[in-house]
Design goal:
The protein has 266 residues and is α/β, with parallel strands linked by helices. The protein has one domain: 3-Layer(aba) Sandwich (Rossmann fold). Helix content is 43%, strand content 14%. It is built from ten helices and seven strands. The chain has a seven-stranded mixed β-sheet with strand order 1-3-2-4-5-6-7, sandwiched between helices. Helix 1 crosses helix 10, helix 2 crosses helix 3 and helix 4 runs antiparallel to helix 7. The termini are far apart.
Length: 266
């Protein structure tokens, strides 16, 4: 099934005549992760959250899934949903897709919010190494139950600071995913296949908000470098938060996002 046949599942709230925000979730997530954020924003903004290909209730787009195809589909949907260019907001995998989309179609977005996302691995052999790792994870995903895979996935060091009860809730929520489609997404959106975007960052001339959790040292460093390379970017490093800032410190995330939107977008 080619990418042109994507049937998006989305959540939409707010007045279409108001400034728009397009939300993209991370790996194994869905549009539902943004519900509390959208609850706080929908009176002042037109909010649309997508299930990305391979995730949630969106169908199609997995046979030729990659950053470029997905970006084209997102742009097409964005033009249909928003009368004026929206802000694009993405977390982790969704943040990388948001970067790819906004930096390649800058006239179609008025700002970007990037949470815990890497503009790309610059060294070729490190990209190859990452692709091999993602391929191995995809094989595990295809060969085991979702709960077994999720338990191992959230055992990685990037999530080691999360309390056990939160991990248990995350695993329970994500256990209904389709392992075959998620494995395709893990490969298609692998950082090993992502073209580095660092050189495009200085070309982005609109507002940007770059968010990371202070506990997540790797992504703090990435966020700081991202902001340094952009012309009009603000950095927010959230105390006592790791990789999933919007979940771990939801109120703080919402407050920072609302302040930035109200000051830079409205």
């Amino acid at each position: 099934m080619p990418s042109s046949t994507i049937q998006w599942h989305l959540s939409e709230r707010g007045d279409p005549g108001k400034s728009g925000i397009l939300f993209l979730h991370g790996f194994m997530g869905s549009s539902r992760i943004w519900a509390p954020v959208i609850d706080s924003l929908c009176e002042r903004y037109h909010c649309v959250a997508l299930d990305l290909p391979g995730h949630g209730a969106t169908t199609g787009g997995t046979d030729d899934l990659d950053f470029s195809n997905t970006a084209r589909q997102i742009v097409k949907l964005s033009i249909e949903k928003f009368p004026h260019p929206p802000v694009i907001c993405g977390y982790s995998m969704g943040g990388r897709i948001a970067l790819h989309t906004a930096l390649n179609y800058p006239d179609l977005f008025k700002g970007m919010v990037i949470e815990s996302a890497n503009p790309g691995i610059e060294i070729e052999h490190e990209r190859r190494k990452r692709f091999v790792s993602d391929r191995d994870w995809a094989d595990k995903l295809s060969q085991s139950s979702m709960k077994i895979f999720l338990t191992e996935w959230y055992g990685q060091s990037v999530f080691s600071y999360l309390p056990d009860d939160l991990i248990a809730r995350i695993i329970e929520k994500k256990s209904s995913g389709d392992p075959t489609k998620l494995a395709m997404a893990l490969i298609g959106y692998s950082q090993g296949l992502q073209k580095p975007l660092w050189r495009k960052l200085p070309l982005w001339k609109k507002p940007a908000l770059i968010i990371a959790g202070q506990v997540d040292k790797k992504y703090c460093d990435i966020a700081e470098r991202t902001v340094e390379m952009m012309l009009d970017a603000e950095l927010c490093l959230v105390p006592d938060a790791g990789h999933i800032v919007h979940l771990e410190k939801r109120d703080r995330f919402i407050a920072v996002l609302k302040s930035w939107l109200d000051n830079r977008i409205l």
